[in-house]
Amino acid sequence: MAEIRSDIKKLSPGLYIVATPIGNLGDISKRGIETLAAADMIACEDTRVTAKLMAAFLLKKPLVPYHEHNGEQQRPKILAKIESGGSVALVSDAGTPLISDPGYKLVQEAHQNGIKVITVPGPSAVIAALSLAGLPTNRFLFLGFPPNKKKARQDWFSAQAETDATLIYYENNKRLGASLADAAVIFGPRNAAVCRELTKKFEEVVKDDLIALADHYKNEGAPKGEIVVIIEGSKKRDTDDDTQDQDMDRTLALALQHMSVKSAAAFVSELLDIKRKQVYSRALELTKE
Ligand code: SAM
Question: How far apart are the CA of 218 and the centre of ligand 1, in A?
Answer without folding.
Answer: 22
